[in-house]
Amino acid sequence: MPKTLPDFLGYLQTLIVDSDDVHLPEEIWRMTQLRHLLFGKCYLPCPTRSPIAGENFVLGNLLTLSKVSSPSCTKEVFERVPNLKKLGLYSGYFDETPLGILVNLPQLENLKIRGLERFRASVNFTFPANIKKLTLESCKIAWKHMTIVGSMPNLEVLKLLDSVTWSPEWELPKGEFCKLKFLLLETKFLVHWRANNTNFTCLECLKLRGCSKLKEIPPSFKDIQTLQIIDLDDASPSAVISAELIQEEQENFGNDIQVRVKRQFNLPENKELEAELIAKLESNDDELQISACSQLRWLINEIKPPSKGLISRFVPRLLEFLDRDDHPQLQLEAAETMEKISIGPVDNINILIEQGTIPIMVNFLSSPKDELRERAIEVLGKIASESAKYRHLVLSSGVLTPLLAQFNDKTKQYIMAVATRTLSILLIRKPPFEQDITEQVKSAIRPLAHLILENDGAVLWHACEALFCLTFGKTDIKQAVIDAGLFPRLVELLLSVKKSYLI
């Protein structure tokens, strides 16, 4: 882009792009009238490592930025948006999310974080004090860390959407969430929730989604005088009963609260649905087969996952659908469903392996279709990440040659990021590589030397992670790393502000 912006861009205030892979140019920092930037996912250039370095442009009018990729969240970036009030942060798989950097946004009032795989914060970490609304979606946060959230002084709205770890108990210390007015809780794992009459003292609305294992809403909710609504969707029968008891107690004190029950969790429903799915799966109707794939992906996300028997019935058919070059939509639906299955428990991984999924996915790495290559890379990465044994199986399938072939100028950036992540999984150092795989592993060093020159945060992070793993390998692998001439770039990264790249 030219250094001088067209006049109309200089006056632009709102930019909305419905895309998950937007790499913004350096000139974005010259658009000082911007007030709202909204994307499916965007990458912001670092202002101190771009052609505009030295130009002290500040987006002082920018109020909304969503969703920005985690690697883009640096001190230098946030210093250029000092008045930001609403931030959506997208954390990719294995991304290091620098929560401490939020201290540079003192005006922030609304924060949404999606996809945080690892909650890492210093002992004294606190969210910016002005935050009133917080949404955590698909984040892995232990209940013990919820104390950090509960202590936020001005928090009024909290949405926890599938955002806690698998611990079945949540016990709140006294005095937490004292200003909270709205709580949306969505978790498959919570069984026992304990609170006292010093918690949620200002709560007006409680919404529970998919809390099928929750035994009861804390009895102390009967003492919350501000409570107006309890909304339950897919709740256990005992949780519904506890809500009705709270409603009765509140009415005894003259408080008229509403209890809404949309669906009550019912275990037998899955058996009926599974029978329906098998019928669609075994049919000769392409549209019914596509519907079966879509429904299975939905079912995997539900409270009670599909049975091992259903997965065993599905995988062979999905592998057949992958051969349907005459029906690209069915082919893609099958690939997406295979990816979803690979995320599930180890039983699912075993079924995939037993049905010969690994060599089929390796073959798809050479497909001319971007979507199929991406799904194949994801499936192989998920299988390899399950254990050292499975990693060896994937490596032994000859995966490295076609995987390394993804790293070229014609490959789209999002596929490059996925491929780099899977490569880093394959190069995990424990246990050491067996002799028959060592030469394959050494062949990855040259591509990694080029990948650490990339500006894409996700690619750079996973490339550095892969090199870190290789330095714990055999002596000849270490020597190959040294011979690749990586040190000047590594020193540059060491001295850069992107501390998460250090290896």
TrEMBL record:
Ranges annotated as spanning the membrane: none
PROSITE patterns the UniProt entry points to: ARM_REPEAT
Matching Gene3D superfamilies: Leucine-rich Repeat Variant (1.25.10.10), Ribonuclease Inhibitor (3.80.10.10)
Phylogenetic lineage: Eukaryota, Viridiplantae, Streptophyta, Embryophyta, Tracheophyta
ATP-binding keyword on record: no
InterPro entries assigned to the protein according to its UniProt record, in alphabetical order: ARM-like (IPR011989), ARM-type_fold (IPR016024), Armadillo (IPR000225), LRR_dom_sf (IPR032675)
ARM repeats: 356-398
Top-level taxon in the UniProt lineage: Eukaryota
Name recorded for this polypeptide: Late blight resistance homolog R1A-3 isoform X1
Organism: Olea europaea subsp. europaea
This protein's UniProt keywords: Repeat
